[in-house]
């Protein structure tokens, strides 16, 4: 017979600090729960105990505190994000029908010790699962301790028995408390004897066995050590009492009460759904559970009908899903209690255009593509649960429908075995009800209703139209890049004195650091690093480095842009049709994929030249409208810094102005170098740049960089005030807001890990600015699109990249379009400083920049 006892607090604490921050879509922290459950399930499975218990500390005036006020005084209070997780852990333990044992004022170790002491003579094997070594003193012939370390992918253990503890720990089990009495325990603030370390303590216990014997034989111990022991005698015996596990608590529990019992699977399933632990749900096989669990999804009775005409739909609100695997549309009409199916795109298009019917869908843009919607302006009264969930939390890792059902309805549609898509369409109503309430509660209506939803038809048309690519230009440029790469390879091999794979970090590392003896900048687990940061630092150390950097640049241009774009050209249209993703960034910016047109190089001319291949249709011209320094203008508006505001109001060169301020010179005396450095400070401030980051970016010392930043804040004090306040707001609320109330949750803002916390603070500083810029650009796109349609112009928006909007315009419309674009973009929002838009035209994308 076997009893397994879990040290609850120890496992929880270690899981919390070992695993990265995890949260549900509703921002419930879950890393400690995840780690704890991983350990629990692993040992329930591997040990297959007959009896089981989880022991916890219980608050109250701790017995040890009464004796020694400094006991555990160095411990910080339990982090809020761990405290929040404990009730969920207890719910899981309850669902597993495992008894929780605790006793007021005492620690889990004391509960475990009491249980072991009471049951160790009952012909029972006892296994203690813990995260620390305090319970090693409980080892006995039938008691073992497993010290566990939890990670995402695995849980490792260190097994201690009464036979191996001396070999592994240095002392026997019965000497563990004597050992701690001598060396102390920093984690519990047990003092021990000052000046005595591990080796001395082990040697003393090998010779004298116990603490009492050591003090009875002080006369036999050499002078210097004896003096330490004499001086620390009171602390030694106090430390022994503090370290000794109490084994006689009056806990009323019988062995029968600890018997392993059947789990409450329905309850456990619901908790795991709430916590979005899909991997555990799959691991435990809940998708194949019995009828009781299937009832977790309650569906009304409904008829399945084939939709032949929208006149058959009775309701004024319907719910629509597209099943990609079936090629069918599912439409739930709650008034007639019917789920209609249709493969007829024309019927669905009519439905989407019907002004009198409110529609709720998942992924509206995809549905428009599936029906090949002919005029996006005619789209009427559609809500999208995917975009609603994105507006509520832009930091989610997934917006797939199944995850949304789990997150907001605590419902897993995977367990619907029959008519799964019909069931999901019915549940779409419940999901929308929940999301719409949360949007109101979080004051996100404007972002959802006036920015994200109106943007859908625009993006749909942009994707459908695409961007023309001149194959001949692209092929010529490809040959040019291939020729440059061949020349670079030859030069690199000549300098290296041998052929090697330049793209292999291992081979490159050998050439640079072993053969050419260049100074090592950074090591990795596999050897010397050759990443971009390392090569930049070595730039002027050897002639081979600039060649390797050029080689990498041209290789990326060739593979990612030249070859990648060539494969993306639609043979029927001669254009690339990118996918513009609304839910792809935490800031609210659009993302682009297949191909990604937003990462076409712009910083260096060799990469920018590829833009020559992007051309308009014959008889058309490309018009490019670009916001000038929009993020700095938003910073001026949000911070209300008078110097910044005045600079923009007076149309001054903001970088020269900043240079004059921080260098203490007149604007006329600002050199190009000074302006360049000031520009790095201006943009760096937005991103919460550190002195280290700035020093690296503009190649100055950290001391100089710190002085630059300090001088900037002296001249623009309200900027510093804003940045401090926004970090404070994020720490208090867990999120930040844009000018339009777009919310971004800031994970790790309270992290005990300094690097994670600093990164979170930088995100908090930047997100309101970058997010507001994204919102303004989206509003501008909507305004420009509507003006083009209102004026019956043939011009069309074909691309949006960060602060830039690109329009393909018939030559005869270009002057009208320039005026429309500039007016609508500059008036998209009213700030304390003017928005300025630069408009250019060209016969290819390169010419417009």
UniProtKB/TrEMBL annotation:
It is an enzyme of class 2 (transferase). Gene3D superfamilies: 3.30.70.370, 5' to 3' exonuclease, C-terminal subdomain, 5'-nuclease, Ribonuclease H-like superfamily/Ribonuclease H, Taq DNA Polymerase, Chain T, domain 4. Residues 201-235 form a coiled coil. The keyword Magnesium does not apply. Residues 1-261 form the 5'-3' exonuclease domain. Keywords: Coiled coil, DNA damage, DNA repair, DNA replication, DNA-binding, DNA-directed DNA polymerase, Exonuclease, Hydrolase, Nuclease, Nucleotidyltransferase, Transferase. It catalyses: DNA(n) + a 2'-deoxyribonucleoside 5'-triphosphate = DNA(n+1) + diphosphate. Its EC number is 2.7.7.7. One of its GO terms (biological process) is double-strand break repair. One of its GO terms (molecular function) is 5'-3' exonuclease activity. Residues 607-813 form the DNA-directed DNA polymerase family A palm domain. Signal peptide: none annotated. Single-chain monomer with multiple functions. In addition to polymerase activity, this DNA polymerase exhibits 5'-3' exonuclease activity. PANTHER family: DNA POLYMERASE I (PTHR10133), DNA POLYMERASE NU (PTHR10133:SF27). Belongs to the DNA polymerase type-A family. This is DNA polymerase I. It comes from Caldicellulosiruptor changbaiensis.
